[in-house]
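Most newcomers find our protein records easier to grasp once they have seen one. The structure tokens are whole numbers drawn from a learned vocabulary of backbone shapes. The record below serves as our worked example for the rest of this section.
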Amino acid sequence: MSSPVLLNLLRCSRSSVTKSLLTGRSAQHTCTAPGQVGGAGNKGVGVRFVSGAVSVRPVTWDSFGIWDDRIEEPVLLPSSIRYGKPNPQVSLSRVGAASVLGLRNQNEDRLRVARIHDDLQFYAVFDGHGGPHAAQYCYTFMEKHIRDALEEEDDLEKVLKKAFLDVDKALHTHLSYFNNRSFLNAGTTATVAMLRGGVELVVGSVGDSRAILSRGGGALKLSRDHTPDQKDERKRVKRSGGFVTWNSAGVAHVNGRLAMTRSIGDFHLKTSGVIAEPETRRVTLRHDTDSFLALTTDGINFLLSDQEICDVINKYQDPTEAAEAISQQALQYGSEDNSTIIVVPLAAWGKHQSSPIVYSMSRSFASSGRWA
């Protein structure tokens, strides 16, 4: 799409694309860009004809990247020009989140949503263990370390790797001030997502919290659980001098103490192969199929599959209601842990239907073994 055509299209939808434009009920108010055939005479609803170098081809609104009429968001102009299609700006006020205590004495989970700058957003969940110290520190300072890394690097995968390692070092210094060795045993998972230009999504993760993208109604996992069950993770632990044991419920632990192989903190296990370096993944969002991004802690994802999480969320029109429903669903399925979730609505929010949810009694028994 040429820049003049794109700019004209963006001018016609300066702040948002209205519902009447999507449904075609007010075709007389539709703008026609140079090189396009449009207006009330078109038979196809929501269709434009864009002229290429050789021929004229029909293009649906979805292929332009127009988002569902339930979520009317402003267009990010620089990003739209860069990618050649309108890209929506996700409003932080629309992001849903929930965190419940479960049967624990305190909530060691933390979540954070922030705007780094106009076209870059930051979402994160931290699941603490051994006390809330590590999760609280990441909640407070991870954003700062990301901002610092952005001053030196533009590649978001490299930014996240640097920020994770830097916050891990800073946490060690911070906890050492208390002169209490037990504080150094505190740790946390970290699953951080950064969305740039409404299109570029990069996820970095350590531990067993998850990032899930709903694409076409299906669940696309963007992170991997770092547990001793993973062959490559277990090899690193053993190569570093650590060992792996399994408890009575069949859950693997590093040195019999930690059920994950990557984390921020857990300094007593650093020499046993537990590392803070995240695995990262980059995804280009598809406005016609990507409904939402969900970040969850294991109080949720141990009881609900990725697809079940997507199905439950797709039943709701409001992201906050969806997040609350997921956390309550985990409790109903027998979760004893803190349960935290962030739901970030994307361009196709509300577009895909969910499948029926079936309750399984076996979940309660599984959860009892998990948190014993």
User: Anything to note?
Assistant: Residues 3-83 form one domain. The CA atoms of residues 21 and 170 lie 51 Å apart.
